[in-house]
Amino acid sequence: MIEIEKDYDEIVSISFDGENLRSDDGERWYLPKGLVGETTVNDLPGNAIFEICCRIEESIIILDTIPIYIKKIDKNKVKVEFDDFGTRKYWDGAIGFKPYMEAKKSIVEERAIEVGDVSLDHYEDDGAWIHLSYSTEVEADKLDLAIKIAEQIVAEIEGAAEMRLGAELWKPKDTENEKEFTLQNVLPILRKLGFQNVKYNHGKREYGRDILFARITEFQELEYWGAQVKFGNISGGATGEIDQILGQIDDAFKMPFYDLYTKQKQRISKFAIIISGKFTENAIEKICEKIESHATRNNLTFIDGDKLQTLAEQFRSLA
Question: N or C: which terminus of the chain carries fewer CB neighbours within 10 A?
Answer without folding.
Answer: N
